Amino acid sequence: MSKYIVKKIKNRQITVCVIGLGYVGLPLAFRFLDEKIKVIGIDNDLEKLKKIKGGVSYIENKKFKKNNFYKEFQSNVSSDYSNAKHVDIIILCLPTPLNKINNPDMSLLNNCVKKLSKFLKKGHTLILESTVYPGATLELFKIINKKKRFSLGKNFYLIFSPERENPGDKLFSYKSTPKVVSGYSKACGSIGFHLYKLLSKKVHLASSLKVAELSKLLENTYRSVNIGLINEFKIISKRLGVNVWDVINAATTKNFGFKKFNPGPGVGGHCIPVDPIYLSWYMKKKKYTTKIIEISSKLNSAM
After folding, report:
1. Which residue would you say has higher pLDDT here, 174 or 270?
2. How far is Cα of residue 123 from the mean position of the Cα atoms in its chain?
3. Enclosing H/E stretch for 179
4. CA 219, CA 214: separation in Å to the nearest integer?
5. Among 137, 216, 219, which residue's Cα sits nearest to residue 184?
């Protein structure tokens, strides 16, 4: 069955459903449309749906094109999860924020898969692009498969491929940015690899779901830790009566072993303040308290 799906992907005969049409989901839908792939969209935000139906993009630098694929997409967006019955591949692009006590909030994803489960069928491929803690992709499948209808890698395919959007960056290119893909099995990975190969010049096939889940957390934890370091250097420089920018400019002249980070008023956006917390929260469940991650998160929040 997986070979049949790969063949459909190569021939651009698949239909993709994107659930969550925000800053990740809508640009992703556009990329499939540009490759002449039929896309169905699902979102609970009625205001967003109204704009899409009217051909209005609320994502900077993303415009609706006047071709049949875009026009069909505009008429195929709704809040109705039953539309997922008519597709081959379903991609979840929902937010995974922190709750009021600074713990991971998976409620949007959990509620989504509960609604979606009744419309899933054998042969479906489910892809998660949302940032999650290690093991969460498989946990979501267990919610779907409570009645044991599906056999992973045989009649249902599970993939994790973390988003790599960079909102506001006019130079960002999805085609030039490598895409990390992982699957529950070799068959799952093959489907994911060939699907994202339509959109990106380079696709890295990770060895497991957990490797890909962790890779996303590493990417943004790396940034959080280095931002925390340079923010502390700003404090140190100030106390020593030195201009921190002069220090950074001097260090940046080194052509190996140093990458420039700039100090600022903490960190913003959807990823850097959140992703490291997902990892430190999960590791507490594994009886390990992260050290550098928590220190940098607290330092950045205090700036």
Report:
1. 174
2. 23
3. strand 179-183
4. 9
5. 137
130: Cβ contacts below 8 Å, ≥ 6 apart: 20, 24, 92, 93, 94, 95, 96, 109, 163
Q: What angle do CA 219, 247, 239 make, to 5 degrees?
A: 100
Question: Token pair for residue 159?
Answer: 């993939």
Q: Is the pLDDT of residue 269 over 70?
A: no
Residue whose token pair is 């009217």:
54
| Active site residues per annotation | 271
DSSP state of 116: H
C-alpha dihedral, 150 to 153 to 158 to 161, nearest 10°: 180
**3-state class (DSSP) for residue 79:** coil
**What is the spatial distance between Cα 134 and Cα 275, in angstroms, rounded to a whole number?**
11
143-189 pLDDT, tens per residue? 999 999 999 999 999 999 999 988 777 777 788 899 999 999 999 99
The token pair at 303 is: 């700036």
Residue 206 near residue 181, CB atoms below 8 Å:
yes
- 184-210 pLDDT per residue, tens: 999 999 999 999 999 999 999 999 999
Angle between the N-to-C axes of helices 136-144 and 209-239, in degrees from 0 to 180, rounded to the nearest 10? 140
The residues near 272 (Cβ < 8 Å, ≥ 6 apart) are 220, 223, 224, 227, 300
Query: To 10 degrees, the CA torsion angle through 253, 258, 262, 267?
Result: 170
